[in-house]
Amino acid sequence: ALCDIGFIGLGVMGKNLVLNLADNGYKIAAFDLSQEKVNDAIEQDKEENKTDSQRVYGCSSYTELLSQLKAPHLIVLSVPAGEPVDQVCESLIGAGIQPDDIVIDTGNSLWADTVEREERYKNQFILFSSAVSGGEVGARFGPALMPSGSPYAWTRIKPIWEAISAKVDPKTGKPIERVEPGQIIEGGDPCAAYIGPAGAGHYVKMVHNGIEYADMQIICEAYHVLRNGLGMSCDEIADTFEQWNQGPLDSYLMEISVEVLRHKIEEETPLVDLILDKAGQKGTGLWTAVSSLEVGCPAPTISQAVYARSISSFKDMRVTASELLQGPTQKTLSDEDKQAFTMRLHDAIYCAKICAYAQGFQLMKLAAKEHNWTLDFASIAKIWRAGCIIRAVFLQPITEAFERNEELENLFLDEFFVEQLNKYQANWRQAVAEITLMGIPAGALSSSLSYYDSMRSAVLPANLLQGQRDFFGAHTFERLDKAVGKRYHVEWSSQERAIQKI
Ligand code: 6PG
């Protein structure tokens, strides 16, 4: 019998998505340029298959793949973003793909490439996109999916996507764990909801990753200050994180940080002490930061997280500078002081996390306006509650904030977050001051605080800035004491310094 879905790209993510689809009763025709990966996927499926019938069929060409599928064909791509996506699309055209066939790009493509691709291929096939979050375990047992593109294609994809996605317990808002091959979760809110037209889904996934960078960096800064400022061991830090993971900071990223910190080499050396401190990045965090500048949406917590990765990559330069540049002399803290500081650090992390999400959601809102997308932010927060890398209990109050007000401009204006920030800002401020005096870099925690203080400033020094601009470039300014929109200019260099109305 013919297969339901064609699958191209059997790397770690692809293979796990294939097995997840197979668990949910779909028959898959699988292809990869590497025959070894095809064989590997078939082998693993044999091991995990709990049914009597074959679930995954290997193909050795694009033509064979199409011939194995029911028409109109539904093909899922899991290939690296960029050129490889176009290479596969062109190969499918060469193999005779039809205009009503659907190709779903599940990679982290740049959203603008997706918009352009949908247009370019529209007479040859329907390009749909659906970024996947959750890493390999998510792909295998339930990722968060951010589908976007043709609404017609979505009607076909929806039942499949809802079946394979992560599920949330509607009563608690918490993920329903699925860890066994073949295990199917009945009920639960699926972490797959239609996002919008072409590009919208990839944009939302890009911002997810920007927030992911910020979340990771905030945790790393906390680790850094506990390790170097307070001299705690990796196990002690893991204990602290574990404790924090019981409260509002409860998140997947905090959970995996505990595991990384506990991992030992030969039962004694913490592995993390041996990992080279140079961070990699594949681009999505950087794209978010770039987009925030283009859209004009301040996102310093996210951008700082990207900078932190960049500065980490200059290892040799840092080592040289560390011999040259001085910092404060280290003070030893009493156990009591350490404890009090750790509590304030917790609040600082929480507030910085609020900033990262406030920035990410505002960015999506402004981008949606610019591109004419209608995004449902409550629904986006909901699908991030499980399956994805930033999953956290924290997504529940964000969901509720957007349910209270779907037009909410920034989380800083929501009653719950106002209350939280007011409650914890003093501790956050003190923690950042203490970390600064310790001489430990904490760009995400401190730039978040500066974002917070800017946001709550009715008056900023942009008045002087406008004066400077007018001085050297006659850029003009508005006045508080005159009608809105009227522009003024000063003849700064002339004797009389006359003010002119423009
Ligand atoms: C996810 C992840 C995933 C991947 C990113 C980030 O949501 O499952 O974000 O897409 O880990 O590509 O990778 P970098 O840290 O290498 O940029």
Automatic annotation (TrEMBL):
Residue ranges annotated for the 6-phosphogluconate dehydrogenase C-terminal domain, each copy included: 201-493
Record has NADP as a keyword: yes
GO molecular function: NADP binding; phosphogluconate dehydrogenase (decarboxylating) activity
Binding positions for substrate per the UniProt entry: N108, S133, G134, G135, H208, N209, Y213, K282, R309, R469, H475
Active site: residue positions: K205, E212
Enzyme class, first EC level, given as a word: oxidoreductase
E.C. number: 1.1.1.44
Pfam families documented for this protein: 6PGD, NAD_binding_2
Swiss-Prot/TrEMBL catalytic activity: 6-phospho-D-gluconate + NADP(+) = D-ribulose 5-phosphate + CO2 + NADPH
Involved pathway(s): Carbohydrate degradation; pentose phosphate pathway; D-ribulose 5-phosphate from D-glucose 6-phosphate (oxidative stage): step 3/3
Record InterPro entries: 6-PGluconate_DH-like_C_sf, 6PGD_dom2, 6PGDH_C, 6PGDH_Gnd/GntZ, 6PGDH_NADP-bd, 6PGdom_BS, NAD(P)-bd_dom_sf, Pgluconate_DH
SMART domains: 6PGD
Any one Gene Ontology BP term: D-gluconate metabolic process
Cross-referenced SUPFAM superfamilies: 6-phosphogluconate dehydrogenase C-terminal domain-like, NAD(P)-binding Rossmann-fold domains
Keyword terms of this UniProt record: Gluconate utilization, NADP, Oxidoreductase, Pentose shunt
Taxonomy, superkingdom: Bacteria
Subunit annotation: Homodimer.
PANTHER family: 6-PHOSPHOGLUCONATE DEHYDROGENASE
Record family assignment: Belongs to the 6-phosphogluconate dehydrogenase family.
Job of this protein: Catalyzes the oxidative decarboxylation of 6-phosphogluconate to ribulose 5-phosphate and CO(2), with concomitant reduction of NADP to NADPH.
Protein name, UniProt field: 6-phosphogluconate dehydrogenase, decarboxylating
Organism this protein belongs to: Thalassotalea euphylliae
